[in-house]
């Protein structure tokens, strides 16, 4: 396990568009439905559940 966690890839990344992170996608989806501060919204469980349902609709899930 240590070997996997400490492994450093050799060489450089290929040119092109950087890979999207999960948080980038999440912030984009929240912005589409008008939520600017996702962390504060996530602390209210009932509101967060509504937000999750709305975002799933955006992604076709």
Describe the 3D structure:
The chain is mostly helical. The chain has one domain (19-61). It contains 4 helices and no strands. The longest helix has 14 residues, at 45-58. The chain starts with a helix and ends with a helix. The mean pLDDT is 81.
Jot down its keywords.
mainly alpha, 4 helices, 61 residues
Main beta sheet strand tally, sense and closure: none
- Mean pLDDT metric: 81
Number of domains: 1
Residues in helices, as a percent range: 55-70%
Q: What percentage of the residues does DSSP assign to strands (E)?
A: under 5%
Order of helices and strands: HHHH
Backbone CA Rg: 17 Å
- Number of helices in the DSSP assignment: 4
Unreliable spans are none
Quick one: overall form?
Answer: elongated
- Please tally the β strands and state the result: 0
Please state the structural category: mainly alpha
Summarize the structure.
With 61 residues, the chain is mostly helical. 57% of the residues lie in helices and 0% in strands.
